[in-house]
C-alpha cells in the first residue's frame, strides 16, 4: 500500500533521503498520524511526522539539504526545514503514561506500537513504514476513516487528557466525521474534567478551534457537548465570519453565557494582551460603561468615556445595538482626533500655569469635538477672556 502518491515531489524526495539512511542503518521509520489520515482522505498533506526507533540526532547528522532545525531533548524530537521548503518532524517512538488524570504525561522511549497507543483517535493512529511500504493499523483507524467515524483509542482517554475533547470537536467538524464518543464526552464535562488542567491548556485548544475554517460549527458543537453555554444568536449576528482569530475569540466571548469560561478567556498567558484587557474590562465594567454611553448627550463626553478603550473593546460595544450608532460616531469622527492646540502654543500667548493650560486644552477639545470644527490659536486669542 503506497500512500506517497498523496505527497508532493519535494516531500517524497526528503522522505526517500530519510528512508535510505534508515535502511542502511537498520532504523525503523514510520510516517504517522495526520499525514497518513490525510493521505487516505485524499487531502493535501501539510505536516509530516516521522517516528523512528532511534534518537533523531543520528539521522540529522547524516542528512543533506537541511536549511535549519530545532531539537527538543526532553522529547527527542526535531523540527526540520529543508532547502526545498519541506517541513518534517522527526520523532523518537515513545510511550506515555499519566500519573494522574489531567497531568502532562511521563514519557519513555519505546516502539511504534506504544507510540500509536498514546495517540488521541483511531483515525490518527496509523503508521506507514517508509522502508517496507506497509501500513500498521492496530486500532481499525482505516475502517473508521472510510466510515467517517471519530472515536478514542482507549478507555480513559478524555480523562487522562481533557484537551482531546476539543480535538475531537475540531476533527469531527473539519472532516465531517461522526463523533462516536459524544455521550462519554458530556459525562466527562459534567464530572468537571476541565478543572484538572490549566487555563492556558484550555485556551490554546479554544484558539485552535477558532482558527478553523468552520469555527462557528466548532463552537456550536462545544455547546452541544456542554463544554460551554453559548448564545447562538449572538454568535452568528450578521453572519460575520472574521478571518482574524482574535476577533473570533472576541465573538465567542460575547456569545458566552458561561461566566467561568468567560473568566478563563481573560485569565491566561496565551491570548493577546489587548484582547484580554478588553475581555476583563467588559466583564467587570460593561454595565457601567454602557450606562454612561447611553446617557451622554454630546461628543466630548462620549470621547472621554471611549478614548481609553482599545479596538477590541470598541468592537464588543459595537455589537450592542443600542450603542451601535454612538460607537460608529466615535470611531469615524473622534477616534483619531488631535487638538488644534498644544501646551507650547498655549504658553506662547502668555499662559504659563500648568493647571490653566490643562483647562484651556480641555475647553478647546470640548468645543472642537462638539462642533467638529478645528478652531486653532486665533480663536483662543480672540476668546481667551471667556475661556479662563
TrEMBL record:
<keyword id="KW-0819">tRNA processing</keyword>
<dbReference type="GO" id="GO:0008033">
    <property type="term" value="P:tRNA processing"/>
</dbReference>
<protein>
    <submittedName>
        <fullName>CCA tRNA nucleotidyltransferase</fullName>
    </submittedName>
</protein>
<dbReference type="Pfam" id="PF01743">
    <property type="entry name" value="PolyA_pol"/>
</dbReference>
<keyword id="KW-0548">Nucleotidyltransferase</keyword>
<dbReference type="InterPro" id="IPR043519">
    <property type="entry name" value="NT_sf"/>
</dbReference>
<keyword id="KW-0479">Metal-binding</keyword>
<dbReference type="GO" id="GO:0000049">
    <property type="term" value="F:tRNA binding"/>
</dbReference>
<dbReference type="GO" id="GO:0046872">
    <property type="term" value="F:metal ion binding"/>
</dbReference>
<comment type="similarity">
    <text>Belongs to the tRNA nucleotidyltransferase/poly(A) polymerase family.</text>
</comment>
<feature type="domain" description="Poly A polymerase head">
    <location>
        <begin position="29"/>
        <end position="150"/>
    </location>
</feature>
<keyword id="KW-0460">Magnesium</keyword>
<keyword id="KW-0820">tRNA-binding</keyword>
<dbReference type="GO" id="GO:0000166">
    <property type="term" value="F:nucleotide binding"/>
</dbReference>
<keyword id="KW-0808">Transferase</keyword>
<dbReference type="GO" id="GO:0016779">
    <property type="term" value="F:nucleotidyltransferase activity"/>
</dbReference>
<keyword id="KW-0694">RNA-binding</keyword>
<dbReference type="InterPro" id="IPR002646">
    <property type="entry name" value="PolA_pol_head_dom"/>
</dbReference>
<dbReference type="InterPro" id="IPR052390">
    <property type="entry name" value="tRNA_nt/polyA_polymerase"/>
</dbReference>
<keyword id="KW-0547">Nucleotide-binding</keyword>
